[in-house]
Each structure stands twice: as C-alpha cells, then as structure tokens.
Amino acid sequence: YINYYYFGYVIAAIPTKLLGILPAITYNLLVPTLFAMTGVGAFCVSYNLAVKIGYRDKSGIRLSPTLAGYASAILMVIMGNLGQPETVYKGMSRVIDNNSSEFLVDGYQAPGFISGIYEVFANNKTVPIGTGEWYWNATRIIPHPVNESGPITEFPLFTFLYGDLHAHMLALPVTLAALVWSITVVFGKGKVRSKAASVVHWALGGIVIGSLAATNTWDYPTYMLIGCCAIIWVYIDGRGRPNNRKRLVNSLAKLCLLVILASLFFLPYATWYGSSYTKLQIWRGSTTPILAYLQVHGLFLFLVVGYLIGETRIWILREHGNFFINRNKFADTSIVSILLLVIIASVALYVSGVVVAPVILALVVWSISLMMMREQSTAKRMCLGLTSVALLLTLFVECVRLDGDIGRMNTVFKFYLQVWTLFSVVGGVAFAWMIGQTNKWKYVSRIVWYVPFLSLVLISISYTVLAISAKTRDRMAIASPAGLDGMDFMQYASYQDKGQSIVLKADYDAISWMQDNVTGSPVIVEAHTPEYRLGSRYTVYTGLPGVVGWNWHQRQQRASTPPNLVTDRVEAVNAFYRTDDIGEALTFLDRYFVKYVVVGEYEWAYYPFEGLDKLRRMADMDLLQVAYKNDGVIIYEHSTASGMRVN
C-alpha cells in the first residue's frame, strides 16, 4: 500500500522510459515542459471563454480573446504574488538594526525605515537579504504563532523556478485540461455530434478528472465539482424546453457517468491506495490577516473587482434597477433572506477570528448576483462562477484543514494553487474586458484604474525578476556551465557533511559509469542520510532502485502501514555498512537482492573503517567483485543477486 498520489510520476516516467533519457537530464526537460503545458492550458481556457463572450459583447465593448489568453498564461506562470516588498522591507530593517535606530540625513534626524533607505542608496550599503530569501519568502507570507507551522503560499512560478517536481506541479496542466473539458460541456449544451464522439468525450472527462485523484488528490474534489456543475448548468440553462423530465433524468445519468468513469479508470490505484489522512476537521488556530490575504491575491482581486464594477455599471444603465432574472415577491424575499444569512455568517466568522470572511462573502454575493442578471452571457456566468469557487476556497482553508496536516500548512498550500489557477483564467478574461472598457472611459477615469493596476503589476513582476536572478545564483557550483545535465555540477562541487568536505567529482564519474554500463533495474545500496542531504545520490541520478529512500518521506508515503516497514530497512542499511561480520553482510545482500554496493567518500564520512573494510575482504574472498573503481569510489558487484527488488 502507498498513500501518495503517484500517477504524475507515471506520466513523467512513460516518455522517459520510451525515449531512453537519463533521469539526470529528464528532470530538466520535464520542468520546462510542464511549465509550457501549464501556460498553454491557461491560454486555452481564457481564450475560449473570451471567444464565447464575443469580440464585441452586448455592451459594445471590444474584447480580444488573444489578449485574454496571453494575460491568463502570464498570470498563471510568469507573475508572482505581492510579497516581495516585505522582503525588501525586512532587509532595510536589518540595516537599521545593525546601526543606530536614528541617522542624520543631511543634518536632520531620519528615524525608522527612511534611515535604512538612506544607508543603502546614499552610502552604498548592501541590503542584508539572503539569496534564498528573494525567492522563498513570498511563499511564507501568512504570519503565525511560534508554536504553529506556517501555511505555504506557493504559486506556480515558484514551483517551476524551485524545480519542485512534486505532485502539485505535475497536476497543474491536468487541472487546466479538466477546466477545458467542463467548458466544452457547457458550451456544447451536452450535445455531441455522434455516438462515437460522445463515448470519447465522456471517457476523456473521466480520465482527465479521475487522474487528479491519483496525481494530486487535493485537486480532485474541486475539479470534479466544477465538472458536475457544468452538467447541472446545461440542464438549468435548458429549463422550460419540451421533455424537461427526460432532460433531468439524462443530466443525472451524465453526473453518475462522470463520477463512475473517473473511479473505474483509476480503480487499480484506489484499490492499492491507503491513507491515514482522510478526515476534515475544524481549524482553530491562527487565521489569515487582511494584509497577508491581499499580498497573495491582491492583483487578481483588483482585476476581479474592476470587472464586477464594470458589469454592475452596465446592468444598472441597461436595466434601470431591474437586475435579476425573476422579479416576483417570492424571489425578492429569497434574495433578502440569503443576504441576511450571508451578513450573519460574515459577522459570526469575523468574530471567531476569520477576518477575511466579510470581504470574501461580499465578493461572492456580488459575483452570484451578476450571474443571475437577465440575458447574462453563458461565458460571463462561467467566469463569475469560477470566481466564486476561487473565493470560497480561500474561505474554506480559514475554517477547515485536513486531519493529520502540519497545522494547516499543506491545506492552504494545495488549495491556494487551485485558487491561483482559477483566478488566472478569470483574470485573463477580466483584463482583456477591462482594456476594452477603459478605451471608452475619460482620460481621468483611465488614470484612476491604470495607476494602481500598473503598480500592482510592477510589484508582482518584481518577484519574477528578483527571484529568477537569485535562484540562478543560488547554486552549489557557480563554475558549472548551464545545461540540461542535472548532475553536471558534481564535477565542480564539494559537499559539506559530517564535518567533512566531500569532493563530488569521483561520484560523478562513478554514476556516469553506471548510467553507461548497468542494464535492467538491479538494486543498489549506498549511504543512508537524514532528509535534505545528498543521500540516495546514486539512485537519484541513475533511476535504479535502492534498498530504502529518505526515511521520513518513505514513512509519509506509507502512513497506513507499520512504520517499521521503512525503519527496518534504514537500520538494515546502516548495520550493513557498520558491521565487520561478513556473514551478516551477505545475509543483507541476499535479503534485499542487492547487486551493486557503493563505497565513496560519503560512505567513509558516515560509517566506520571496520565496516567498510570488510567489503574489501569480501572482494579478496571472491564474495564480491570490483565492478568499478576510481580514486574516490569503489562499486562492488554481488554476482549472485537476481537484480530484483523485494516488496
């Protein structure tokens, strides 16, 4: 059993194996490929929404679908959040802390932050900001108590820049494909040209949305909900037509079909999936302040609010206050009742500490009200609906977390990526629509909108510029040339561990030999280290299986099984390298079907001489063969090993 959503790695592994590309190079091809697919996916969603709104909508506003598409792609994968000024502020504050609290600037006392600016720019002092802070700090914006793990406010640009090839990155293009499929359902009104096309259409929906459960499970509920809402939308949009009861039954059948197909296509995964984190619980810890909320979502909210204001203005002028689809006593009473409930909920949540609740719920009510306007276009209703979903997700993580999460760290992290995706596709359309609308405004009105918008864009793109610059400098070996080979740095780098400086060139040569000469998937054993060190270096760069990976990660991914399943292997690896007993060593090699044993400088840093010297004695006794040797590494071959892994 494994509780990790691993299908994204299957998707990545298939072209890797088919093309015969080494893992060290594959990694550096996968990241930009996923980056491009994510940008193209965002373009596709916004472009098609804008096309359906029309090049010139009913209000006479010109709308460029191409502009909407490009804006969405840029928002999705190029822009950062608004957190970079806080990093600069902290750097300036350190300048102040490192000196006196007040400086004389041209004979006058300049207290506080101004003095820090003066010291930096007038006296050419360097702002004490660590290289990693330029790209890391914006992903940890939400403040939290010392005894609580802070939420992760990661966004796609950081994910790709950091090279974080985890499930959340692998799922991004799939989530956008799920949105595209949902759009086709709405715009196609449930009709498909032929039975064969219908089979393909629904199978594709089941595969795309179902794959999210196995790729990044956090995404599955949101995008399955959107897919189901698309089906319901088609039914609601066609109410009043003949055979309404038949259409209702047909819609319910399609809902069931989508859910069933999504489950059936990934039944093998579900069968062997076991997770200990399956329940939601009320979150009673710290919540997000308004400022932090705006730092994360501010640029999107500016575009959304501008769009909402523009739409509201158009409908006020057109309808003269007769806004809603149905105007009768029952409808008016229902609307008033809903508004009162929303106000009560906002106050209750605010009092309980969720200070962003009134802002979120006000925007949701506003968006839904515009969706209900008579003669509102379907595409605009979709944009408003996706906006409401995004806003409600940001409220959801203030109130609930997944039981077993570290605080609400991953709950915010995973759902905020969904929010970023939805806001990006809506934001692209909103931007193109606002550009068309501002062309009809007076000059002063344009200034009022463009100045804050461009300011937010500059703040957002300051992360892009500074973070990329810092990340490209934050390297283990500056001398290593740019290229696709992810292990090339080892030719130039030394690694500090256990109080030693370990030159990696010998490991590079040995790994290159394994890449060129080892066939199949034999098991290898190498030093076991704590997480986030250079352990598993040979398995990482060859793709060959090892006896055990990172201890904590392996236990996390098998949380439904006894922890000794992993820890026994960790202890076995350490015991194998430490013991001087040849019989015990052979038992280990046979038990785990180990074919290759690595002994390099890293192993010498972690294990005693007696334990490693026994391998030399085993080779003298022909129990092992020296398969490869250089000045720093010996790779022994256990010839009786079958090369197969044990479960």
What's the layout of helices and strands?
Blueprint: H1 7-19, H2 23-53, H3 65-77, H4 84-98, E1 102-105, E2 108-111, H5 113-121, H6 133-136, H7 156-161, H8 167-188, H9 195-215, H10 219-237, H11 244-265, H12 267-271, E3 280-282, H13 290-319, H14 329-351, H15 357-371, H16 378-399, E4 400-402, H17 409-438, H18 443-473, E5 494-497, E6 500-503, H19 505-517, E7 523-525, H20 537-542, H21 551-556, H22 564-578, H23 582-591, E8 594-599, H24 601-606, H25 609-620, E9 625-629, E10 634-637
Parallel strand pairs: 7-8
Antiparallel strand pairs: 1-2, 3-4, 5-6, 8-10, 9-10
Helix pairs in contact: 2-3, 2-8, 2-16, 2-17, 3-17, 4-5, 8-9, 8-10, 8-17, 9-10, 9-11, 10-11, 13-15, 13-17, 13-18, 14-15, 15-16, 16-17
How would you portray this structure in words?
- The protein is an alpha+beta fold and 647 residues long.
- The strands form four sheets. A four-stranded mixed beta sheet has the order 7-8-10-9.
- The protein has helices at residues 7-19, 23-53, 65-77, 84-98, 113-121, 133-136, 156-161, 167-188, 195-215, 219-237, 244-265, 267-271, 290-319, 329-351, 357-371, 378-399, 409-438, 443-473, 505-517, 537-542, 551-556, 564-578, 582-591, 601-606, 609-620; strands spanning 102-105, 108-111, 280-282, 400-402, 494-497, 500-503, 523-525, 594-599, 625-629, 634-637.
Tags for this model:
647 residues, alpha+beta, two-stranded antiparallel ribbon, 25 helices, 62% helix
Task: Report a brief summary of the structure.
The protein is an alpha+beta fold and 647 residues long. It has helices at 7-19, 23-53, 65-77, 84-98, 113-121, 133-136, 156-161, 167-188, 195-215, 219-237, 244-265, 267-271, 290-319, 329-351, 357-371, 378-399, 409-438, 443-473, 505-517, 537-542, 551-556, 564-578, 582-591, 601-606, 609-620, and strands at 102-105, 108-111, 280-282, 400-402, 494-497, 500-503, 523-525, 594-599, 625-629, 634-637.
